[in-house]
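Extended Data, panel c. Modelled sequence:
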Amino acid sequence: MVVMTAPPGPQALPTREDALALVHEYTASDSLRKHMLAVEAAMRSYAERLGSDRERWGIVGLVHDFDYERHPNAEHWPSSGHPAEGVRILREKGYPQDILDAILGHASYTGVPRATTMAKALFAVDELTGLVAATALVRPSRSVHDVDAPAVRKKMKDKAFARGVSREDIVAGAADLGVDLDEHIGVVVGAMRSVAPTLGLAGPTG
């Protein structure tokens, strides 16, 4: 179990501009940046859907993997590598504790429980955004506008497709969030459609 102590004093929510600057500073990979933008969009959509803070949920989605490139953690060490190293950096910058806990919780190997709805949503959308993007990229249009829940479900059954995406995490995440899987896929697809040009998934014209 990784135990993080919140810094003293009030913890103001960082701006999206500051969060995005951090992503750009630490992440060179275009595909990883787009993944974080996709998760941000999905988190904002769920926050609106659940009557929560869109900015707060969006920021946790935006920065959840910012350290992944510099601090890979294939060994799944709970207190070093991603996401523990990233959380240390965010903690020094004064990020609120609930955001730090959610980021730690999205990697099950940290042992940090997903105690808030925000943390559960982050885990639920993380792997799914990757599967939705992969499904869009094999469409003739390469557009997320041509992706729907049945298409994603079909790709979920193909174990050779997007091998790195954990189907188990997608199913477990939706269940823990208390959302029907098809409905969950629909929310994430809709969120990604809203930022399709940014994600490079708007098709030939986008």
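The CA atoms of residues 127 and 169 lie 7 Å apart. This feature is highlighted in the accompanying rendering.
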